[in-house]
Predict the structure.
Amino acid sequence: MTPLLVPKRPRRAGTHAARPHRWPLTPLAAALASALPWLVTAEAAPPVARAVPVPAVSWRVNGAGSAAPVNRPNAQGGVDQTIGQSSPRSIYQWDSFDIGAASSVTFDMGLKGASALNRVVGPGAPSQIFGRLSATNGGEIFLINTNGILFGRGAQVNTGALIASALNLSDAEYLSGLTRSLLFDPKSPTFRYDGTAENFVDAKNFVRVDEGANLTTGNGGRIFLFAKRVENAGSLSTPGGQTLLAAGGEVYLQPPNAQLALYASEANPNVPTLRGLLVEVGQGPGPLPEGAAGSVVNQPSGRIDTPRGNATLVAMAVNQSGRISATSSVTENGSIILRAQGAANTAENVVRASQGGSLTLGAGSQTTITPDATRAANGRPLTSDGNATFVNPRIDLAGQSVLLDAGAQVTAPGATVHVRAEDKPGYEPFDSVRYQAGSDAARIVLRAGAVIDVSGTTDASVSAGRNFVTTELLGSSDLKDAPLQKNGLLARSKVTLDVREGSPILGDLAKYRLGLQQTIEERLSGGGQVTLRAQGAVLAAEGSRIDVSGGHVTFTAADVRPTLLMSQNGVLFDLNNAPADQTYRFGQNLQKGSLAGFDRWGVNVAYGTLTPQRHEPGYLEGRAAGSLSVVAPTVVLRGGLAAQAENGERQRAGLDGRATGGSLGVGALRQGTAEFGTPTYSGDAVLKSFEVSPGGPAVAAALW
């Protein structure tokens, strides 16, 4: 890897005082950052082991089911509580909603995917769940307690979906399935704090998952945690679904197409990369020093796992110090969105954040998207061909300040990683944004040991025999480039040929190459894209690393039997070199459509003469490296950049296309839709100065 050093812009003497090692924060960001290490603890002692929820006098206020909860003692010294529900949606009111360590609560849903809203209306105490909470039939559980919610050590939650919130949700919104704000009134928050200002503080308006707590949903489920302070030290898992942690005084949920320009996939601009809901957060009435904004923390012990799904964390202060992982399959992409922003603005047509905050990926944290290991029912890897829309995995990191601390790892083979540091969050797509400078506080920092790795996979393995494709019965359209063959031997025949090459008779073989089935490992073998955009500075310390290298695919040896044609003069050809202007009197390894007609499976076909199989040797095929784009007024890249591509023996011999190396762009190579150097390019490249030297310029320690 080659270290890249780009100096910061020169300063005028006396314009800045010496900075401490950590960059200066705005007062709001400093207040939020100082709150991150706090641990929210419930004010009350943990509930007794046999505790279960206590219904209010007016219990079920909407829906149908059992007349009251049924409580039965269990062998562990606790209580098993069952709530029978026969309606699609029901609303319950509780004086308290606690579950002791030896107790359980089960919502017995009579209908698949039924939903229950549980609102705590009793005295001001948080809900404490140390036991088991579940719902049958893939049921969805809402738990609303504006005094806070704690999932303590040992808590086990297994539902179709879980929405736990210290912000309120109206009955009308719930009964609409959240569609009222999602579809009909998007400027109205879905969840909102409606209490007093003195209670809008971290210690009183929180959702916390302790280490040792395990919250899980079924496939396609969701876990939403909303409060002023949201903290996870346990385990959250939503396979094929979405985990969403949002903190603030208001939560606006939006469908993914609400910001389609920002989240459009590279393969199809009409397909969003996010399979889930978008979220924006507004402010609450909280007093200083905590202020009105919220914070989300994934503690070092915190695990958020979303196979084939999405994980989203949004607040004015976001601290990801644990592990957030997703996977991508050939049909379901994974995505991770960490956005430190807030003060949602409803004055425009679409609700958008108006202020950037502080995003920290803590020391040793892991933010990863890996190829999905799910197998088909027959035990084989899942595959798709080039005709299907494939959406690459994606990681978005945004805030006014974005810090990847020492040892923080962002790893996603073949993925797109966008990092933005802006005073006011931008929503333009990267390929059409107009770049401009902002405050010095808007910066991206990679400390020593921090890694962004989108290098391609190297463990994909396929048979070389896959390259030999047997066509369907050839018709006139298939032989349009060889009219002499339309009434000859090849008409109404199936042939086998090597689609890596061309064919004088069949012409371009691109459609056959598109039909080749690929695993997710092969799909992600090319290097990904990394974009670092900051209105102040991009600073990569010595020892940090960005890797966009290409991977490779290993083709294993195979025995194949391609079609052979004998010309009138006795010369033998295969379909890759058979001239189109000759007639052929004999074919080997060719399936001729029978003129006798059809059977129950279609046209009758019969093989001609079969030759022995020949050995096709294995080989390695390198894939292209990706790209790194950096745009900021001040750029210091003292870390390493890997952007190489390897080429296998066939590529080096010119038989297959060569894998290209990666690219580095520094400065705004594109403004809006205009490329740098074209007459329509307006504005500047944003860089104040740019210099490359072998040893790199001296960089003042105060800059860091």
